[in-house]
Write a structure and sequence with these properties.
The protein is 37% helix and 22% strand. By secondary structure, it is α+β, with helices and mostly antiparallel strands. It has 3 domains: 81 residues, Rossmann fold, CATH 3.40.50; 132 residues, 2-Layer Sandwich (D-amino Acid Aminotransferase, Chain A, domain 1), CATH 3.30.470.20; 69 residues, 2-Layer Sandwich (Dna Ligase, domain 1), CATH 3.30.1490. The strands form 3 sheets. Strands 8, 9, 10, 11, 12 and 13 form a 6-stranded antiparallel sheet that branches. The longest helix is centred in the first third of the chain and has 17 residues. The two termini are 28 Å apart. GO terms for molecular function: ATP binding; D-alanine-D-alanine ligase activity; metal ion binding.
Length: 318
Amino acid sequence: MVRLAVLRGGHSMERDVSLATGRRVQHALERLGHEVHPMDVEETTTERLIELEPAAVFVCLHGPGGEDGTVQALLETLGIPYTGSGPLSSIRCMDKDYAKRALAAAGLPTPRFCTFVRRAMNEMGAAAALNVAADSLGYPLVVKPAREGSSFGLSRVERPEELLDAVYEAFGYDAKILLERWVEGREVSVPILEPAGEAPRALGLVEIRPREGAYNFQAKYTPGMTDFAIPAELPPGTASRLEETALAVYRTLGCSGFARVDTIVEGETPQVLDVKTIPGFTETSTFPLAAEAAGLSFERLVEIILDSALRTEAAPKL
């Protein structure tokens, strides 16, 4: 038994999801026999961590503040081991602009995109380039915040007259947004687990099938609104290519411990949309569903992730 802290909640738009993930992780750790101290993010969090001196922190914070390297850098300053990826990898993955540029530079498939920053819109009149960008990508296209998850602020734009409203919507969530080519195909999530001392491996391919419309916030977290095919019903060659691509993405972005690579399979080609360094662990989340299908109980999944964090001989995280 060891003393652990579970960081959950926070101040992002994904607070409720983080609380649900944190509660489930907390209960799993308690069933494994550990002394668990759940912590929400507040002004006294650092003082509480210093006083508690936990053997490790299980980070269950989603979105800004949790997945952007902020808490990871703090925990490294305090010398406390923690679950998941390090500060640099977290920054890369949280910001879709950074992540997609790194993937493109490595020759990995990701939809074409254009980036807009609010400051450039205000100071340089960058709004004049919106139509140029949209025309280069073609309609339909996607407009989304660069640093949000759970589909917050995301819009599918069918026609030029819808573009400006979608841009304003996305800027309501982040000062940097992306216009991205719309990809038609099967939505497949690839959870990746990296046990201590072992190479990362894909737990399985999870095909996501919303019963109505898009895989939005409601469809992600409301039981019964989405069906899942595990493993995804893909031709063997396509499935193998997707798994290899996801692992290459994981390595390229410097992830460690675990992560989830979200893709659309366009024909036979996987297009990488996003990488989550702290994926949800709710009852409807794809990561624990894939683990269960692979023969891992939720407690065993949590134990593997914790063990990776506790390995003092592990190499420093990126």
